[in-house]
Amino acid sequence: MATPFTSAEEFREVMDRVFTMMSEDPEMGPKLRDADVPQRFEFGDLDLVMNVRAGQPQEAANLYWEWTDEVPWSPSVRMKMSSETANRYFQGRENVAFAIARGRIKTGGDIKAALQLIPITKPIYERYRTVVADEYPHLTI
Fold first, then answer.
1. Does pLDDT of 1 surpass 70?
2. What is the pTM of this model?
3. Quick check: 73 pLDDT over 80?
4. Is the CB of residue 55 less than 8 Å from the CB of residue 62?
5. Is 140 among the domain residues?
């Protein structure tokens, strides 16, 4: 499958916006911070890796992420997917459990912990669809 994004840079820009929205949301952000599930995402079609963890007590943000494997924490969950699958997920068009079963998402680690985050992040779908419709219409599904 080809990526719907125009470049790896565009994908990073869009995902940075999504994770910022989740981190800054007054309901999602604190819940994701409290869940404290460090994750590693690999987007093989764009040769990108993103590591995400909960914000630390001295940090203002609820989530902290870096686009590298050179991080001082270990992920408890690893997910590998295409940028297309990520785009579908954040639009609410990709069920993670089905995507795992069908091999569109390859996983490792504490998948149960990752699946428990899904209900927390559901409000991002509508917000992501709005951003896509307004600013990245070529990503609309």
1. no
2. 0.94
3. yes
4. yes
5. no
DSSP string, 41-96: EEEGGGTEEEEEEEPPTT-S-SEEEESSS--SS--SEEEEE-HHHHHHHHTT---H
The range of the structural domain enclosing residue 108 comes to 8-133
Whether residue 93 is contained in a domain is answered as yes
* Domain at 38, CATH number: 3.30.1050.10
Query: Is residue 42 assigned to a domain?
Result: yes
* pLDDT for 114 beyond 90: no
pLDDT mean over 90-101 = 93
Closest by CA to 77, choosing from 47, 103, 102, 42, is: 42
How many domains are contained in the chain?
Answer: 1
